[in-house]
Design a protein that fits this description.
Keywords: Disulfide bond, Signal. The chain has two helices and 21 strands. By secondary structure, the protein is mainly β. It has a six-stranded mixed β-sheet with strand order 11-21-18-13-14-15.
Length: about 350
C-alpha cells in the first residue's frame, strides 16, 4: 500500500514538472482568444484534463514527435473570462489549468491568460442606465450612486464587503438636455445611520471641496473617468467603527473646462507625495489647498445645502465583515446542511 502511494506521488510529481515546462501561446483577437498549448508525450493520455477556465480543448492532435497540441478557440463570453476596466484599458483574464483530479481538488498547474485592449472613446459600462443604485432627481438632473463589483463591470450583487476588499462607489448624473457637465464629489462621509443630524458620528472620506482625504491614509483613489458626467471613488474597506455603513455624499455638477479650488477632484499620490487633480494633472496646483483650507462658495458641515446644481446622496447599508466571520458562517451552513438532510 505504501509503495503504491509512493509511486502515485512520484508520477504526479513527474507530471507536474512536465506541465510546468509546457509551451503555451496566446493570440488575442477582437472578441476572442486562441490558445495553443503544446505538452510532452507523458501528458497525451490526459488531454481531457487540460482546461481554459471551464472549457476543454476545441481541437486536439498528437504531433509526429509524440507531443500533444491542444487548441482553445473561444470568445470572451465563454469559459468564465472576467472583464476588468482600468483607466483607458479593458482586460480579459482567465487561467489555463491541468486538473488530474476532478473538483473540488485543486489543479496541479495554473497559467494566467490575459488579453488587453484600448478602451473605445465612446465606451460606457453597461450598468450606466436609469434604475441602478440610488436614483434621485434635482430639477431636470437625475443623480445615481451605487456600489460596483470588484471588476467594475456591474452593480455589486451584495452589500456584504470583506474587510480589506475594494469598495468602488460609482456616481453619475443624467445630463438629458444639459450641456456637458462635470460630476464632482464635494464631500463624503461614512456614518452608521441613513440620516445625518447635528452631532452625528461620521468618518470623513472626502472633504475640503473635493479632496479625497482617505487617499493619504489608505489605498484609495479616484479612477480615471470614462465620461465627465460620472466618477468612481475606489476605496479599500476598513473598520469604520460601525458595522453597518452608510456613505453620504454631496454630488455637484460643474463646467468641465472651469476647475477651481472649490470645484475639483483631487487625490493624494503616495509615490510623488503630492496631491493630483484627477481631470488635468498639469493643473494640480489647484489641489495644494487640500492640506489647508480650500476656498468655499457655499456653507459646509453635516447639514449640507442643496442650493445650485448639487445633490445629497446616500448609499447603504454596506456591511463590513471580517474574513473569519465569513468562514465561520460558511462552516455553520455546512454543518447545518450535514445535520439536516432536508437542507441538502
Amino acid at each position: 500500500m505504501g509503495t503504491h502511494l509512493y509511486l502515485d506521488l512520484l508520477v504526479l510529481a513527474v507530471f507536474a514538472t512536465t506541465v510546468a515546462n509546457a509551451d503555451i501561446n496566446v493570440v488575442c483577437a477582437n472578441n476572442s482568444v486562441r490558445v495553443t498549448w503544446r505538452v510532452n508525450a507523458e501528458l497525451v493520455p490526459y488531454a481531457a484534463r487540460l482546461f481554459l477556465g471551464n472549457c476543454m480543448a476545441s481541437q486536439w492532435k498528437v504531433l509526429p514527435s509524440g507531443e500533444g497540441e491542444a487548441q482553445f478557440n473561444y470568445t470572451f463570453s465563454e469559459c468564465k473570462f472576467t472583464k476588468m476596466v482600468k483607466g483607458k484599458r479593458i482586460f480579459y483574464q482567465n487561467e489555463m489549468s491541468y486538473r488530474p483530479q476532478t473538483k473540488p481538488n485543486p489543479p496541479d498547474f495554473v497559467h494566467p491568460i490575459e488579453c488587453v485592449y484600448r478602451r473605445p472613446k465612446d465606451w460606457i459600462p453597461r450598468f450606466v442606465n436609469p434604475g441602478y443604485g440610488v436614483s434621485e432627481g434635482h430639477g431636470r438632473l437625475v443623480f445615481h450612486m451605487a456600489l460596483l463589483n470588484e471588476e467594475l463591470s456591474s452593480i455589486a450583487k451584495t452589500n456584504i464587503i470583506p474587510l480589506g476588499s475594494p469598495m468602488p462607489i460609482w456616481a453619475a448624473v443624467e445630463q438629458k438636455s444639459h450641456q456637458p457637465l462635470l460630476l464632482l464629489m464635494e464631500e463624503c462621509v461614512a456614518a452608521p445611520t441613513a440620516e445625518l443630524r447635528p452631532g452625528s458620528q461620521v468618518y470623513p472620506i472626502i472633504g475640503n471641496k473635493g479632496c479625497l482625504l482617505e487617499s493619504k491614509k489608505e489605498n484609495s483613489m479616484f479612477l480615471p473617468r470614462y465620461h465627465s458626467s460620472s466618477i468612481i471613488l475606489y476605496l479599500q474597506s476598513f473598520n469604520f467603527g460601525f458595522r453597518e455603513v452608510y456613505i453620504h455624499c454631496k454630488l455637484a455638477v460643474w463646467d468641465p473646462q472651469n476647475f477651481a479650488e472649490s470645484k475639483k477632484a483631487c487625490h493624494y499620490i503616495k509615490g510623488t507625495n503630492r496631491w493630483e487633480l484627477l481631470d488635468d494633472p498639469s493643473r494640480s496646483s489647484l489641489c495644494n489647498c487640500c492640506d489647508l483650507s480650500c476656498k468655499s462658495r457655499s456653507r459646509r458641515g453635516v447639514e449640507w445645502a442643496s442650493d445650485g446644481p448639487s445633490h445629497n446622496s446616500v448609499l447603504g447599508p454596506l456591511i463590513i465583515v471580517d474574513q473569519s466571520d465569513l468562514r465561520d458562517s460558511d462552516t455553520m451552513m455546512e454543518s447545518a446542511t450535514t445535520a439536516d438532510p432536508q437542507l441538502k
